[in-house]
Protein backbone atom coordinates (compact mmCIF):
# COMPACT_ATOMS: atom_id res chain seq x y z
CA UNK A 1 0.00 0.00 0.00
CA UNK A 2 1.12 3.51 -0.78
CA UNK A 3 0.52 6.86 0.83
CA UNK A 4 0.12 10.04 -1.16
CA UNK A 5 3.06 11.53 0.73
CA UNK A 6 5.28 8.63 -0.35
CA UNK A 7 4.05 8.80 -3.94
CA UNK A 8 5.01 12.47 -4.10
CA UNK A 9 8.65 11.47 -3.53
CA UNK A 10 8.67 9.19 -6.60
CA UNK A 11 10.42 10.63 -9.67
CA UNK A 12 8.46 12.19 -12.50
CA UNK A 13 9.37 11.73 -16.13
CA UNK A 14 11.06 14.76 -17.65
CA UNK A 15 9.86 16.44 -20.81
CA UNK A 16 12.97 15.38 -22.70
CA UNK A 17 12.57 11.77 -21.54
CA UNK A 18 8.93 11.70 -22.61
CA UNK A 19 9.80 13.19 -26.00
CA UNK A 20 12.58 10.65 -26.51
CA UNK A 21 10.30 7.75 -25.56
CA UNK A 22 7.54 9.06 -27.80
CA UNK A 23 9.95 9.17 -30.73
CA UNK A 24 11.20 5.69 -29.97
CA UNK A 25 7.63 4.37 -29.83
CA UNK A 26 6.76 6.05 -33.13
CA UNK A 27 9.75 4.38 -34.76
CA UNK A 28 8.63 0.96 -33.50
CA UNK A 29 5.12 1.58 -34.79
CA UNK A 30 6.33 2.64 -38.24
CA UNK A 31 8.70 -0.33 -38.31
CA UNK A 32 5.74 -2.65 -37.69
CA UNK A 33 3.86 -1.46 -40.78
CA UNK A 34 5.42 -4.16 -42.95
CA UNK A 35 3.46 -6.74 -40.96
CA UNK A 36 0.55 -4.63 -39.78
CA UNK A 37 -0.81 -2.49 -42.61
CA UNK A 38 -3.13 -5.00 -44.26
CA UNK A 39 -3.31 -6.97 -41.02
CA UNK A 40 -3.95 -5.95 -37.42
CA UNK A 41 -2.37 -6.63 -34.07
CA UNK A 42 -4.35 -9.03 -31.86
CA UNK A 43 -5.39 -8.25 -28.30
CA UNK A 44 -2.08 -9.36 -26.86
CA UNK A 45 1.33 -10.61 -27.83
CA UNK A 46 2.39 -14.25 -27.66
CA UNK A 47 5.80 -14.72 -26.04
CA UNK A 48 6.33 -11.00 -26.50
CA UNK A 49 5.38 -10.74 -30.17
CA UNK A 50 2.15 -9.75 -31.88
CA UNK A 51 1.07 -12.16 -34.61
CA UNK A 52 -0.86 -10.60 -37.52
CA UNK A 53 -4.63 -11.12 -37.44
CA UNK A 54 -7.73 -9.91 -39.24
CA UNK A 55 -9.97 -7.03 -38.19
CA UNK A 56 -11.97 -8.93 -35.58
CA UNK A 57 -12.27 -8.76 -31.78
CA UNK A 58 -12.87 -5.60 -29.76
CA UNK A 59 -9.27 -4.39 -29.70
CA UNK A 60 -8.07 -3.79 -33.27
CA UNK A 61 -8.79 -0.07 -33.11
CA UNK A 62 -5.93 0.39 -30.68
CA UNK A 63 -3.32 -0.60 -33.25
CA UNK A 64 -4.76 1.86 -35.77
CA UNK A 65 -4.80 4.45 -33.00
CA UNK A 66 -1.09 3.87 -32.47
CA UNK A 67 -0.55 4.52 -36.18
CA UNK A 68 -2.34 7.86 -35.88
CA UNK A 69 -0.41 8.83 -32.75
CA UNK A 70 2.85 8.01 -34.52
CA UNK A 71 1.67 10.00 -37.55
CA UNK A 72 1.08 13.01 -35.31
CA UNK A 73 4.63 12.61 -33.98
CA UNK A 74 6.40 12.21 -37.32
CA UNK A 75 4.15 13.47 -40.12
CA UNK A 76 5.14 10.35 -42.07
CA UNK A 77 3.03 9.86 -45.18
CA UNK A 78 3.67 6.14 -44.87
CA UNK A 79 1.89 6.15 -41.52
CA UNK A 80 -0.97 8.24 -42.86
CA UNK A 81 -1.44 5.89 -45.81
CA UNK A 82 -1.47 2.87 -43.49
CA UNK A 83 -4.00 4.51 -41.19
CA UNK A 84 -6.30 5.37 -44.07
CA UNK A 85 -5.98 1.84 -45.47
CA UNK A 86 -7.13 0.50 -42.11
CA UNK A 87 -10.05 2.96 -42.10
CA UNK A 88 -11.35 1.15 -45.18
CA UNK A 89 -11.20 -2.12 -43.25
CA UNK A 90 -13.19 -0.58 -40.39
CA UNK A 91 -15.80 0.75 -42.80
CA UNK A 92 -16.20 -2.69 -44.35
CA UNK A 93 -16.35 -4.31 -40.92
CA UNK A 94 -19.22 -2.17 -39.67
CA UNK A 95 -21.11 -2.35 -42.95
CA UNK A 96 -20.80 -6.15 -42.98
CA UNK A 97 -21.48 -6.41 -39.22
CA UNK A 98 -18.34 -8.45 -38.54
CA UNK A 99 -17.94 -9.11 -34.80
CA UNK A 100 -19.78 -5.97 -33.70
CA UNK A 101 -22.57 -7.49 -31.56
CA UNK A 102 -21.18 -5.89 -28.39
CA UNK A 103 -20.68 -2.51 -26.77
CA UNK A 104 -17.04 -1.86 -27.65
CA UNK A 105 -17.68 0.41 -30.60
CA UNK A 106 -15.78 3.26 -28.97
CA UNK A 107 -12.66 1.17 -28.37
CA UNK A 108 -12.85 0.11 -32.01
CA UNK A 109 -13.82 3.31 -33.80
CA UNK A 110 -12.63 6.28 -31.69
CA UNK A 111 -8.86 5.72 -32.00
CA UNK A 112 -9.14 4.46 -35.58
CA UNK A 113 -11.86 6.37 -37.42
CA UNK A 114 -12.72 9.38 -35.25
CA UNK A 115 -8.97 9.98 -35.11
CA UNK A 116 -8.70 9.77 -38.90
CA UNK A 117 -11.64 12.15 -39.34
CA UNK A 118 -10.10 14.69 -36.97
CA UNK A 119 -6.61 14.46 -38.44
CA UNK A 120 -7.30 14.11 -42.17
CA UNK A 121 -11.00 14.84 -42.76
CA UNK A 122 -11.41 11.35 -44.22
CA UNK A 123 -15.13 10.99 -45.06
CA UNK A 124 -15.04 7.20 -44.98
CA UNK A 125 -13.71 7.43 -41.42
CA UNK A 126 -16.61 9.68 -40.46
CA UNK A 127 -19.13 7.34 -42.09
CA UNK A 128 -17.67 4.29 -40.38
CA UNK A 129 -17.65 5.92 -36.94
CA UNK A 130 -21.26 7.11 -37.26
CA UNK A 131 -22.35 3.60 -38.31
CA UNK A 132 -20.50 2.23 -35.27
CA UNK A 133 -22.33 4.70 -33.03
CA UNK A 134 -25.63 3.57 -34.57
CA UNK A 135 -24.67 -0.03 -33.87
CA UNK A 136 -23.96 0.81 -30.23
CA UNK A 137 -27.29 2.63 -29.88
CA UNK A 138 -29.06 -0.66 -30.65
CA UNK A 139 -27.71 -2.07 -27.39
CA UNK A 140 -29.36 0.54 -25.14
CA UNK A 141 -31.76 -1.01 -22.63
CA UNK A 142 -34.59 1.30 -21.61
CA UNK A 143 -35.29 -0.90 -18.59
CA UNK A 144 -32.34 0.03 -16.42
CA UNK A 145 -31.03 2.78 -18.68
CA UNK A 146 -27.71 1.34 -19.87
CA UNK A 147 -25.87 -0.17 -22.82
CA UNK A 148 -25.80 -3.95 -22.52
CA UNK A 149 -22.21 -5.12 -22.84
CA UNK A 150 -22.38 -8.56 -24.37
CA UNK A 151 -24.65 -11.38 -25.43
CA UNK A 152 -28.15 -11.64 -26.81
CA UNK A 153 -30.04 -8.43 -26.14
CA UNK A 154 -32.36 -8.75 -23.16
CA UNK A 155 -31.01 -12.13 -22.06
CA UNK A 156 -31.11 -12.40 -18.26
CA UNK A 157 -27.61 -13.87 -18.01
CA UNK A 158 -26.15 -10.88 -19.85
CA UNK A 159 -28.42 -8.04 -18.73
CA UNK A 160 -25.59 -5.92 -17.37
CA UNK A 161 -23.33 -2.97 -17.96
CA UNK A 162 -19.59 -3.04 -17.45
CA UNK A 163 -17.30 -0.28 -16.28
CA UNK A 164 -15.26 -0.41 -19.51
CA UNK A 165 -18.22 1.03 -21.42
CA UNK A 166 -17.54 4.51 -20.05
CA UNK A 167 -14.78 4.66 -22.68
CA UNK A 168 -17.32 3.92 -25.43
CA UNK A 169 -19.52 6.90 -24.60
CA UNK A 170 -17.32 9.56 -26.27
CA UNK A 171 -18.12 7.97 -29.64
CA UNK A 172 -21.78 8.75 -29.04
CA UNK A 173 -21.14 12.35 -28.01
CA UNK A 174 -19.02 12.79 -31.14
CA UNK A 175 -21.73 11.24 -33.34
CA UNK A 176 -24.25 13.65 -31.88
CA UNK A 177 -21.99 16.57 -32.72
CA UNK A 178 -21.34 15.58 -36.34
CA UNK A 179 -24.92 14.50 -37.14
CA UNK A 180 -26.83 17.03 -35.05
CA UNK A 181 -28.92 14.21 -33.53
CA UNK A 182 -29.24 14.71 -29.73
CA UNK A 183 -30.34 11.09 -29.12
CA UNK A 184 -26.74 9.84 -29.07
CA UNK A 185 -25.75 12.16 -26.25
CA UNK A 186 -28.98 11.61 -24.32
CA UNK A 187 -28.46 7.85 -24.21
CA UNK A 188 -24.80 8.29 -23.30
CA UNK A 189 -25.70 10.64 -20.46
CA UNK A 190 -28.21 8.15 -19.05
CA UNK A 191 -25.74 5.28 -19.20
CA UNK A 192 -23.03 7.34 -17.50
CA UNK A 193 -25.37 8.41 -14.71
CA UNK A 194 -26.36 4.82 -13.98
CA UNK A 195 -22.83 3.48 -14.24
CA UNK A 196 -21.63 6.08 -11.74
CA UNK A 197 -24.52 5.21 -9.45
CA UNK A 198 -24.03 1.46 -9.37
CA UNK A 199 -20.47 0.35 -10.17
CA UNK A 200 -18.74 2.48 -7.52
CA UNK A 201 -18.58 0.97 -4.04
CA UNK A 202 -18.59 2.94 -0.76
CA UNK A 203 -14.79 2.64 -0.50
CA UNK A 204 -14.46 4.02 -4.08
CA UNK A 205 -13.31 0.75 -5.57
CA UNK A 206 -15.37 -0.46 -8.51
CA UNK A 207 -17.30 -3.44 -9.74
CA UNK A 208 -16.38 -4.74 -13.17
CA UNK A 209 -19.99 -5.48 -14.11
CA UNK A 210 -23.44 -4.72 -12.73
CA UNK A 211 -26.66 -6.66 -13.37
CA UNK A 212 -30.20 -5.32 -13.74
CA UNK A 213 -33.55 -7.08 -13.77
CA UNK A 214 -34.57 -7.44 -17.44
CA UNK A 215 -38.27 -7.30 -16.57
CA UNK A 216 -38.27 -4.21 -14.35
CA UNK A 217 -34.85 -2.58 -14.86
CA UNK A 218 -34.23 -2.69 -11.10
CA UNK A 219 -30.55 -2.81 -10.06
CA UNK A 220 -29.53 -6.25 -8.81
CA UNK A 221 -25.87 -6.89 -8.03
CA UNK A 222 -22.28 -6.15 -8.90
CA UNK A 223 -20.11 -9.08 -9.97
CA UNK A 224 -16.72 -9.50 -11.56
CA UNK A 225 -15.77 -11.10 -14.83
CA UNK A 226 -12.04 -10.34 -15.02
CA UNK A 227 -11.28 -9.34 -11.44
CA UNK A 228 -10.09 -11.84 -8.84
CA UNK A 229 -13.45 -11.97 -7.00
CA UNK A 230 -16.73 -10.10 -6.86
CA UNK A 231 -15.60 -7.95 -3.95
CA UNK A 232 -12.09 -7.16 -5.17
CA UNK A 233 -10.93 -4.24 -7.29
CA UNK A 234 -9.79 -5.29 -10.76
CA UNK A 235 -6.93 -2.89 -11.53
CA UNK A 236 -7.83 -2.19 -15.14
CA UNK A 237 -11.48 -1.74 -14.20
CA UNK A 238 -10.44 0.94 -11.72
CA UNK A 239 -8.39 2.58 -14.48
CA UNK A 240 -11.41 2.49 -16.84
CA UNK A 241 -13.33 4.23 -14.08
CA UNK A 242 -10.70 6.95 -13.75
CA UNK A 243 -10.43 7.64 -17.47
CA UNK A 244 -14.14 7.16 -18.10
CA UNK A 245 -15.05 9.66 -15.38
CA UNK A 246 -12.59 12.20 -16.75
CA UNK A 247 -14.02 11.84 -20.26
CA UNK A 248 -17.57 12.05 -18.91
CA UNK A 249 -16.74 15.27 -17.09
CA UNK A 250 -15.14 16.71 -20.20
CA UNK A 251 -18.46 16.32 -22.04
CA UNK A 252 -21.06 16.89 -19.33
CA UNK A 253 -19.30 19.23 -16.88
CA UNK A 254 -21.14 17.59 -13.98
CA UNK A 255 -19.28 18.81 -10.88
CA UNK A 256 -20.08 15.58 -9.04
CA UNK A 257 -17.80 13.77 -11.47
CA UNK A 258 -14.79 15.71 -10.19
CA UNK A 259 -15.33 14.27 -6.72
CA UNK A 260 -15.86 10.78 -8.14
CA UNK A 261 -12.70 11.07 -10.22
CA UNK A 262 -10.64 12.17 -7.23
CA UNK A 263 -11.86 9.29 -5.06
CA UNK A 264 -11.42 6.63 -7.75
CA UNK A 265 -7.93 7.94 -8.45
CA UNK A 266 -6.98 8.07 -4.77
CA UNK A 267 -8.02 4.42 -4.39
CA UNK A 268 -5.91 3.45 -7.42
CA UNK A 269 -2.83 5.36 -6.29
CA UNK A 270 -2.88 4.22 -2.67
CA UNK A 271 -3.18 0.56 -3.69
CA UNK A 272 -0.12 0.56 -5.95
CA UNK A 273 2.95 -1.50 -5.04
CA UNK A 274 6.35 0.05 -4.42
CA UNK A 275 7.34 0.17 -8.11
CA UNK A 276 3.96 1.71 -9.14
CA UNK A 277 3.13 -1.09 -11.62
CA UNK A 278 -0.21 -2.47 -10.42
CA UNK A 279 -0.92 -6.13 -9.97
CA UNK A 280 -3.80 -7.26 -12.16
CA UNK A 281 -6.12 -7.03 -9.14
CA UNK A 282 -5.70 -4.85 -6.07
CA UNK A 283 -6.21 -7.84 -3.79
CA UNK A 284 -2.49 -8.44 -4.44
CA UNK A 285 0.32 -6.34 -3.03
CA UNK A 286 4.12 -6.32 -2.78
CA UNK A 287 5.55 -9.81 -2.46
CA UNK A 288 2.82 -11.51 -4.45
CA UNK A 289 3.69 -13.83 -7.34
CA UNK A 290 0.61 -12.70 -9.26
CA UNK A 291 1.19 -10.93 -12.60
CA UNK A 292 1.12 -7.18 -13.09
CA UNK A 293 -1.02 -5.21 -15.51
CA UNK A 294 0.99 -2.34 -16.94
CA UNK A 295 -1.97 -1.37 -19.15
CA UNK A 296 -3.93 -0.34 -16.07
CA UNK A 297 -1.25 2.20 -15.16
CA UNK A 298 -1.12 3.53 -18.73
CA UNK A 299 -4.90 4.00 -18.96
CA UNK A 300 -5.07 5.58 -15.50
CA UNK A 301 -2.30 8.02 -16.43
CA UNK A 302 -4.28 9.10 -19.51
CA UNK A 303 -7.33 9.65 -17.34
CA UNK A 304 -5.40 11.86 -14.94
CA UNK A 305 -3.94 13.87 -17.82
CA UNK A 306 -7.37 14.32 -19.36
CA UNK A 307 -8.92 15.50 -16.09
CA UNK A 308 -6.03 17.87 -15.45
CA UNK A 309 -7.17 19.87 -18.48
CA UNK A 310 -10.39 20.76 -16.70
CA UNK A 311 -9.15 21.50 -13.17
CA UNK A 312 -7.76 24.57 -11.39
CA UNK A 313 -4.00 24.98 -11.64
CA UNK A 314 -3.05 23.40 -8.30
CA UNK A 315 -5.12 20.26 -8.82
CA UNK A 316 -4.08 20.04 -12.46
CA UNK A 317 -0.43 20.12 -11.41
CA UNK A 318 -1.05 17.38 -8.84
CA UNK A 319 -2.73 14.94 -11.26
CA UNK A 320 -0.28 15.71 -14.05
CA UNK A 321 2.50 14.92 -11.60
CA UNK A 322 0.92 11.63 -10.55
CA UNK A 323 0.44 10.63 -14.19
CA UNK A 324 4.04 11.57 -14.90
CA UNK A 325 5.20 9.30 -12.07
CA UNK A 326 3.21 6.38 -13.50
CA UNK A 327 4.68 6.94 -16.96
CA UNK A 328 8.18 7.15 -15.47
CA UNK A 329 7.61 3.80 -13.75
CA UNK A 330 6.28 2.27 -16.97
CA UNK A 331 9.31 3.52 -18.87
CA UNK A 332 11.69 2.06 -16.29
CA UNK A 333 10.04 -1.29 -15.68
CA UNK A 334 7.89 -2.15 -18.70
CA UNK A 335 8.92 -0.29 -21.86
CA UNK A 336 10.34 -2.45 -24.63
CA UNK A 337 13.98 -1.49 -25.18
CA UNK A 338 15.22 -3.80 -27.93
CA UNK A 339 14.30 -6.84 -29.95
CA UNK A 340 12.59 -8.65 -27.08
CA UNK A 341 9.18 -7.68 -28.49
CA UNK A 342 7.47 -5.91 -31.38
CA UNK A 343 5.19 -4.15 -28.90
CA UNK A 344 5.72 -1.10 -26.73
CA UNK A 345 4.81 -2.09 -23.15
CA UNK A 346 5.62 -5.37 -21.42
CA UNK A 347 3.98 -6.93 -18.36
CA UNK A 348 0.34 -6.44 -19.27
CA UNK A 349 -2.43 -8.89 -18.43
CA UNK A 350 -5.51 -9.27 -20.60
CA UNK A 351 -7.31 -11.72 -18.31
CA UNK A 352 -6.28 -13.91 -15.39
CA UNK A 353 -8.36 -16.85 -14.26
CA UNK A 354 -9.15 -17.22 -10.57
CA UNK A 355 -11.27 -19.61 -8.48
CA UNK A 356 -13.93 -16.86 -8.33
CA UNK A 357 -14.15 -15.33 -11.82
CA UNK A 358 -15.44 -16.58 -15.15
CA UNK A 359 -12.57 -15.87 -17.55
CA UNK A 360 -9.67 -17.98 -18.85
CA UNK A 361 -6.02 -16.97 -18.81
CA UNK A 362 -5.40 -14.66 -21.76
CA UNK A 363 -2.31 -12.58 -22.47
CA UNK A 364 -0.79 -12.98 -19.02
CA UNK A 365 2.50 -11.08 -18.70
CA UNK A 366 2.40 -9.94 -22.33
CA UNK A 367 2.07 -6.75 -24.30
CA UNK A 368 -1.55 -5.72 -24.77
CA UNK A 369 -2.77 -3.63 -27.68
CA UNK A 370 -4.54 -1.12 -25.41
CA UNK A 371 -1.56 -0.97 -23.06
CA UNK A 372 0.68 -0.03 -25.97
CA UNK A 373 -1.86 2.51 -27.22
CA UNK A 374 -2.44 4.22 -23.86
CA UNK A 375 1.30 4.34 -23.16
CA UNK A 376 1.79 6.16 -26.46
CA UNK A 377 -1.22 8.38 -25.75
CA UNK A 378 0.17 9.30 -22.33
CA UNK A 379 3.54 10.23 -23.85
CA UNK A 380 1.72 12.31 -26.46
CA UNK A 381 -0.34 14.09 -23.79
CA UNK A 382 2.81 14.84 -21.79
CA UNK A 383 4.61 16.41 -24.74
CA UNK A 384 1.90 18.21 -26.75
CA UNK A 385 -1.42 20.00 -26.39
CA UNK A 386 -3.18 16.97 -27.81
CA UNK A 387 -6.56 16.98 -29.55
CA UNK A 388 -8.13 13.84 -28.08
CA UNK A 389 -9.51 11.05 -30.25
CA UNK A 390 -12.06 10.30 -27.50
Topology record:
Blueprint (H helix, E strand, L loop, with lengths): L3 H4 L7 H17 L28 H15 L2 H20 L8 H16 L2 H15 L2 E2 L4 E2 L12 E3 L6 H11 L3 H16 L10 E4 L6 E5 L11 H18 L3 H15 L23 H15 L4 H21 L14 E4 L10 E5 L2 H15 L7
Antiparallel strand pairs: 1-2, 3-4, 4-5, 6-7
Task: Describe it.
With 390 residues, this protein is mainly alpha-helical. The protein has three domains: 1-34 and 256-385, Alpha/alpha barrel (Glycosyltransferase); 39-138, no CATH class; 140-223, no CATH class. It is 51% helix and 6% strand. The protein has helices at residues 4-7, 15-31, 60-74, 77-96, 105-120, 123-137, 169-179, 183-198, 235-252, 256-270, 294-308, 313-333, 369-383, and strands spanning 140-141, 146-147, 160-162, 209-212, 219-223, 348-351, 362-366. The strands form three sheets. Strands 3-4-5 form a three-stranded antiparallel β-sheet, with no helix packed on it. The chain has a two-stranded antiparallel ribbon with strand order 1-2. The protein has a two-stranded antiparallel ribbon with strand order 6-7. The longest helix has 21 residues, at 313-333. The radius of gyration is 19 Å and the shape is globular. The two termini are 32 Å apart.
Amino acid sequence: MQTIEKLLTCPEITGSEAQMLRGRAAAVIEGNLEQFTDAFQPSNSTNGFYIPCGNTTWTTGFWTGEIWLAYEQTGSERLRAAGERQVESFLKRIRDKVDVAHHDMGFLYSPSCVAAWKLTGNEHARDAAVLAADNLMERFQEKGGFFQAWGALGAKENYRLIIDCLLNMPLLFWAGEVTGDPAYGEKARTHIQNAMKYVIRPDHSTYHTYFFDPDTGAPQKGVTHQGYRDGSAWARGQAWGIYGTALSYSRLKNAAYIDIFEKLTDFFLTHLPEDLIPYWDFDFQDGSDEPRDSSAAAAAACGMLEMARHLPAQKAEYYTGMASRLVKALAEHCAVRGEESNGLLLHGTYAKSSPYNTCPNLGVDECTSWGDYYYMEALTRLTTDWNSYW
